[in-house]
Amino acid sequence: MANNVVVVGAQWGDEGKGRIIDLLTPSVDAVVRYQGGANAGHTVVIGDAKTILHLVPSGVLHADCLCIIGNGVVLDADVLIDEIEGLHSQGYLKNPKMLAISKSAHLVMPYHRQIDQLRETKLGSARIGTTGRGIGPTYEDKAARRGIRFGEMIDPEIFKKRLEQILPEKNKLIEILGGHPVDMSTLLTEGEGWRKRLAHHAADASLILNRYIKDGKKILFEGAQGTLLDIDHGTYPYVTSSNTVAGEACCGSGVGPTVIDDVLGVVKAYTTRVGEGPFPTEDDGKVGETLQTRGKEFGATTGRKRRCGWFDATILKHAARVNGLTMVAITKLDVLTTIDPVRICTGYKLDGATIDYIPSSDEELRRCEPVYEDMKGWKEDISGVRKFENLPKATQAYINRLQEIAGIPISIISVGYERSSHIMMRDPFA
User: Fold this and answer.
1) pLDDT of 303 higher than 80
2) Three-state secondary-structure class, residue 157
């Protein structure tokens, strides 16, 4: 039986992690978000209601689950306040004690957002494709020891002192980039509002989590973005500014690696990505359009259309290696219905040679041509299926082949948008 499980995206993000986390939350006592910022978007559909979460862990839709924003997250206070208000309006998070924010989480400041957007504009066609939410500049300041932590914002004097140290340099950079300097008094006023709305959520997340672990309680560690957006192990430079892999669950929440029991990687039954960068299995034709339309592939944070293509098993093998995946969840399997044949990329052709790994060089990945294996498609509606053996034979064959290539057991299969539309092959917490 597993007590502590990491859920991580095993593609370029947008794999449906929020859906899987919501599904598993009834089995746990706490869900902790351990990295990323408001550039993440986890969508959970319950009946006719769709809830999009950017900072609050997806477990918030269950009243008895403690939700923790860990120290590895960069926190946009304005976005978080709006998100909390939205949850209240839907009847969630009635007990404020069920949301804890690490005092060590760094704040995304207005100058971070402006710097992010100005840089992207100056890059032009060479832009990275960021969300413009200031995530990268905030992580830069964290690494350079120029950041402001959530706990520092709570104390007005410390907050003012930190701004006096930092703001002059930021405003000089903004002027060089062609922007408008940020006013100190405006930031101090905004800080008062943040303090009033959020200070009561401040906590030592590491202490809470380790007490839970000592008491034998179950914890789910929630990742944002996906493996290929990891700043070290992703398709650099078209990546996010934090480590998205499972190892960051420990660093970003304050627990030791020996407490993690399992790592669940989430993948779509096909592949998508948002923004710029190489995408070997991207389909610019009818199949890509079908996947985009039928899968409702729009970024939860940006609203941008997602680029779509065939399932890339090379990516899954990479994710399995760098995350130490012990199981896999597959989402949106129903989107492939009526597509025939269904293709799986099993490797790449690079300069005439066949490889079964992702090159670390951006230039090499752009030259990679996918090697496909075609499988028979299916026409039957699978959204009502709840047992693997009741899936069409062609669908079973597709799942079995993915499992065989990855060498990892598949634990959950999502076959529709509804909360109940899934097949539980192996409950990670059972």
Assistant:
1) no
2) helix
